[in-house]
Prior knowledge:
Structural class: alpha/beta
Shape: globular
Helix content: 25-40%
Distance between the termini: 21 Å
Largest sheet: 8 strands, mixed
Mean pLDDT: 91
Strand order of the largest sheet: 3-6-2-1-9-13-14-12
CATH superfamily: Acetylglutamate kinase-like
Number of strands: 14
Low-confidence stretches: 209-218
CATH architecture: 3-Layer(aba) Sandwich
Strand content: 15-25%
Amino acid sequence: MIILKLGGSVITxxxxxxxTLNPVNLDRIAQEIARANIGKLIxxxxxxxxxxxxxxxxxxxxxxxxxxxxxxxxxxFTLTQNSVKILNHFVCHYLLKYQIxxxxxxPSSFITTENxxxxxxxxxxxxxxxxxxxxxxxxxxxxxxxDESIQMAVVSGDQLVNxxxxxxxxxxxxxxxxxxxxxxxxPKTHSQAQLLEVVNxxxxxxxxxxxRTVDVTGGMAGKLAELLELADKxxxxxxxxxxxxxxxxxxxKGEKVRGTIIRK
Length: 264
């Protein structure tokens, strides 16, 4: 079994001022997944511009200080949830276009958090879909939180990767982004940035200028924190660039590709 994360920066225009799909990338990625012909596969995609805009505007996950603020956050919660469901629909649509039996599994329907970390999740439905040969498609979402001071929280695709990997023990974990992997500096602003082929410690984080690019899920620093937590449990993952045509297909087939391995 493989857990594949599709980064929001790859399938949407993450810096857009409104929810904006990247249909060219999504269509190509769906084709590459179909050609790879994986046995058991779970797909988790980020929310990109479909989730971050509303979650940031309404500060989902921040303390609630009044009844009026709670009412406002309820609107933000539902707007965010509805928006990411639309993105999930598009992802499943393109997968189905290439005969991948994708089935939507919204985290808000079976996950709750405690202080923004997953506390409970009924994974029986995910396991049953896998047994049937279907491809569960989860996504970054907003969920109910047991902490009365916040009541609702954002669950990132990266936290989902962490949780599902620990519980379901996949053979491989692949995370796709819009860069080749983890660099010592931001490759989009530094031509001399060097790709780190292996990251195995939180000490590496202090060298990552790109980690300062933060979204509502913690940006690259948040992603690495989740993956390093997995690495500490002996679960290895890899980050690759899904913007490069054919690279995702090669990675899914088990071929060595350019990227960063996260391991203990």
